[in-house]
Write a structure and sequence with these properties.
- The protein is an alpha/beta fold.
- It folds into two domains: 203 residues, FAD/NAD(P)-binding domain (3-Layer(bba) Sandwich), CATH 3.50.50; 137 residues, 3-Layer(bba) Sandwich (FAD/NAD(P)-binding domain).
- The chain is 29% helix and 26% strand.
- Helix 3 runs parallel beside helix 10 and helix 3 packs across helix 11.
- 48% of the residues are buried.
């Protein structure tokens, strides 16, 4: 491990009380023990826990955005239950409290063999090890007509922030009686229950403000996460408002016309919406693919113990981009993986043996202000990879009463506050 003195730099940053922003010139002169790329649920957690596990490590976090908007609870913003700033978080505590160099630039090119990452403005930063948490990018070739320009009229809102606001505002501007079309992607994708929570939150908004409106879900899959629980809730809360067409019902969208807000399915059915939410198929963030870390399916194979890439040494990949066995692509999964990856990266840099971790995932979905459902599971690392622990977790019961559903909605808020505090404080 190569230790670099950073005491004076750290004191100056603490005195100013601002996120450490390393200039291009300074960055070009630095080589860190660990560089973390991406400041979401996986990357922010990993950066913090690297310093928590081994305070002597020099750690840089490269994240182009100064404010991170969480995808969890973004559907509540769309549904009018929370303002956008309620899901906004900054990186001040990671720099001030934990001494992490937070570099607010885009990571341009990762070179695993040279162990460098080039920033968007040109300079390179060196590292002994890297933890890459790039999230997802979108396959704009999968649906004819849905390129980047189409996002202005048909926002996906699958990366929270400006697109969340755009979709919310379109719903506000829509006339009562309009049709909202939601087109989820094929598996795998970020947050499997997310499109159906979104449909629920939009239905809540419409029920209370534009009750003559309808929602049509055009789904390319035959089934989806927590399906029975969602459909039970839709019948109870929003009868006649939500129609769901799956693959057997010609639910796969193959073509869109952004100007006419029209979609076409595989067998030629056409639907025109007042608001159209297309969620494209996904793959690992492009920086991972460009660095040769993804397989032919677009996702990143990793060692299930250390999360080290199977394509390159000293590069560890976590979160949505990683192939993590039975674990779903969720914020809580990424948070859990970030801790184990940090533990094992710190161990490798200090001469300790790797540790096979246990993981947890809990996914709450809020379907109305007082109606929540969940799925939970514990995972462990075996010779077969990361697998679910038999008998752990499970789904919310189908026969739960109103009090139980209200309690789960309350627990969801507690979960959100806890996990974001774990990441950013």
């Amino acid at each position: 491990m190569k230790n670099i003195s950073r005491r004076g730099f750290g004191k100056a940053a603490l005195a100013t009380g601002i996120t450490i922003m390393v200039s291009g010139k300074a960055a070009a002169q630095r080589r860190y023990d660990v560089v973390v790329i991406g400041g979401g649920f996986g990357g922010a957690t990993a950066a913090k826990y690297l310093r928590k596990f081994e305070p002597k490590l020099s750690v840089a976090l490269i994240e182009q955005n100064r404010v991170f908007h969480t995808c969890p609870f973004s559907n509540l913003v769309i549904g009018g239950l929370r303002p956008l700033n309620a899901i906004a978080h900054n990186y001040l505590a990671l720099s001030k409290r934990w001494g992490i160099d937070v570099i607010h630039q885009r990571a341009g090119r990762l070179n695993p063999s040279a162990r460098t990452v080039r920033l968007a403005d040109g300079p390179e930063i060196g590292f002994e090890k890297a933890i890459v948490s790039p999230g997802v990018d979108f396959d704009f070739q999968a649906i004819e007509g849905y390129g980047r320009p189409a996002m202005r009229t048909m926002p996906h809102a699958w990366k929270a922030g400006p697109q969340t606001r755009e979709l919310r505002d379109q719903l506000r501007e829509m006339e009562d009686g309009g049709l909202v079309i939601i087109a989820p992607p094929m598996d795998p994708f970020r947050c499997p229950p997310g499109p159906y929570e979104r449909a629920s939150m939009i239905a809540h908004y419409l029920k209370t403000r534009k009750p003559r409106s309808k929602i049509l879900i055009l789904d390319p899959k035959t089934t989806f996460s927590k399906e029975a629980l969602f459909k039970q809730a839709w019948e109870r809360l929003y009868p006649g408002m939500i129609e769901h067409l799956n693959a057997a019902d010609d639910g796969r969208v193959v073509r869109v016309d952004p100007d006419r807000l029209e979609v076409e399915t595989a067998f030629g059915a056409r639907y025109r919406g007042a608001v159209v939410n297309i969620i494209p198929p996904q793959f690992a963030g492009v920086i991972a693919g460009n660095a040769g870390l993804a397989n032919e399916d677009g996702w990143c194979p990793v060692n299930p113990v250390t999360f080290e890439s199977r394509m390159a040494r000293d590069i560890h990949i976590i979160g949505d981009a990683a192939i993590a066995g039975a674990m779903p692509k969720s914020g809580f999964s990424a948070n859990s993986q970030g801790k184990i990856a940090a533990l094992n990266v710190a161990a490798a840099l200090t001469g300790r043996d790797p540790v096979a971790g246990s993981f947890a995932n809990t996914c709450y979905s809020i379907l109305a202000p007082d109606y929540g459902i969940s799925v939970a599971k514990v995972y462990r690392t075996t010779d077969d990879g990361i697998v679910g622990v038999e008998g752990s977790g499970g789904l919310s019961p189908m026969d739960a009463d109103a009090g139980f559903r209200a309690a789960e909605a309350h627990y969801a808020q507690g979960w959100y506050e806890a996990v974001t505090a774990d990441m950013f404080t």
